[in-house]
Amino acid sequence: APKSTLPYPPIHDKSKVVVLSDWSNGTITITDTNDYLTDNLGFGFEKRRFASSSRSLNLEILAGRMSFRDAFREELESVNLPFDDCIKLLKQNIKIDPTFKEFYEWCKAHDVPLVIVSSGMEPIIRAVFENTVG
């Protein structure tokens, strides 16, 4: 497996519990940030998701004809807006689960590490958090 060029998160070996949470699509955010960009600025919902499309990337992945990584790259490459403009748009339109902020603050107050698992979209996560959690 290729080595990551990103630093690994701190190891929480002294904690009895560590919370791992997915980022998007109903876990922390209501809407998946990458899907939002693809559907609204890229090639759209139909090509990403539905069989009625000439080539649905989700179905290509499920059928084993395309890797998630290649499909994800194709989705993001279909977005033709500068990254900073994408961040602004996401900050305006992506909402977090209404109970997440309280959960996040509970974790902090009880010294429970919260690790967010995502597909390497740290700048997007930080931007949305700035706007919603503080």
TrEMBL record:
Domain of life where this protein originates: Eukaryota
PANTHER family: PHOSPHOSERINE PHOSPHATASE, POLYOL PHOSPHATE PHOSPHATASE PYP1
Pfam families xrefs: HAD (PF12710)
Listed name of the protein: 5'-nucleotidase
Gene Ontology biological process terms, A to Z: L-serine biosynthetic process
InterPro entries: HAD-like_SerB, HAD-like_sf, HAD_sf
GO CC terms of this entry: cytoplasm
Listed GO MF terms: L-phosphoserine phosphatase activity; magnesium ion binding
Organism of derivation: Tulasnella calospora MUT 4182
